[in-house]
C-alpha cells in the first residue's frame, strides 16, 4: 500500500514539479509548456478558477493568482493565500471548459487556522490512536478536490509524513469526514512474528520463497478495516494481516499469465475447474491459510474467480483466483459484516 496510490497521474506530475527545489522543478521535456499571466485568460475561466479555490479555502480568505502554465490541453494556474499559510494549484481543462482539480498546500503550522476545531481534534485523535507505539508526525497537509477522477476519495484533506515515518491520513469530505490512514514501516520496526507469518503465507500459496521488502499499516475507521500489508520488492505480491487479530486476511502472488483483456476473456470463457474440482483443490489451502473448513460451502464461478460461500447469513466467504495454468495464485477473505481487522 504505497501512500501515493490515490493521487492521479496528473496530480502526481504536478506534485513532483512543485515540491522540488526551484532549480530542479522542471517538467518532462516531452511536455510543451508556455507561461502567461492570469489576465490573459478569459473572465469566465478566471471566475471558475476563483470559485474552485474559494470552495476549498472559504470566501473570506484573500488569495492571488501568480502565473499560468499552458500544458496544451490544460492550464495549470498557481497562486498563494495572502496570509502566507498556503499555496495552491488548479488544473483547468480547455476542451471541457471546467476545473478538473484544485489543490491547496498548507504549512503544518497553520492547521489550527485552516481546520475547524472539531475536525482538527478528530484528525489528531485518529493519528494518536493509530499506533500507540509510534506517533505520527505530519510535515504538511493539503486540501484537494478532483471531482472528475475515478479514484476515491476525490474531495478530501490529506496529511503527509516523511522519512522513516512516511504516512498519509485522508479525511474524505464526501463520506462525512471519515478517516483512512496508511503508514509505511521500516522492516526493523515490524513484529518479527508478523513478518514470518507473511513470508510463510507467500510460500504456502506460491511454493516459492518471496522476500518481504515493504511493510505498511492501513486503517479505514468507517469501514472497520485495519490491517498490515506486506509486499515484495516489485509490489506484485501482497499479504494482508489483521492489525487487531494477527490473522491472515488476504494473499496475492504474481500469477498473471495472460497477454491482454482479449486473451483473458478467451482463456476463461469456460471454467478451468468445475465447482467440485475447485473445492477439492482449494479446501486444503484455505484451511491452512485461514483455518476455515470449506465443507458445505457453495461455489460460484465467474471468469477466473471462484467464490466459496455458505447460504447462512453472517458467514465469511472466500474468493480465490486461478490463472491459465490452473494455479490458484490469490485468496481473499470477505467478512459478512465487511470488517476485517
The poorly predicted ranges are 1-33
Shape: globular
- In total, the number of strands is 17
Order of helices and strands: HEHEEEEHHEEEEHEEEEHHEEEE
Q: What is the CA-CA span between the terminal residues?
A: 16 Å
Beta-strand portion reads 25-35%
Helix/strand class? alpha+beta
Q: Would you write up a description of this structure?
A:
It is a single chain. This protein is an alpha+beta fold. It folds into 2 domains: 184 residues, no CATH class; 156 residues, no CATH class. The protein is built from 7 helices and 17 strands. It has a 17-stranded antiparallel β-sheet, covered by helices on one side. A hairpin with a 6-residue loop joins strand 11 and strand 12. The longest helix is centred in the last third of the chain and has 16 residues.
List the helices and strands and how they pair.
Layout: H1 9-19, E1 34-36, H2 43-57, E2 63-70, E3 74-81, E4 86-93, E5 98-107, H3 111-114, H4 117-130, E6 140-145, E7 155-160, E8 167-172, E9 178-185, H5 192-206, E10 214-220, E11 225-231, E12 238-242, E13 248-252, H6 261-267, H7 275-290, E14 298-302, E15 305-309, E16 317-322, E17 328-334
Antiparallel strand pairs: 1-2, 2-3, 3-4, 4-5, 5-6, 6-7, 7-8, 8-9, 9-10, 10-11, 11-12, 12-13, 13-17, 14-15, 15-16, 16-17
Signal peptide: 1-24
Keywords: Signal
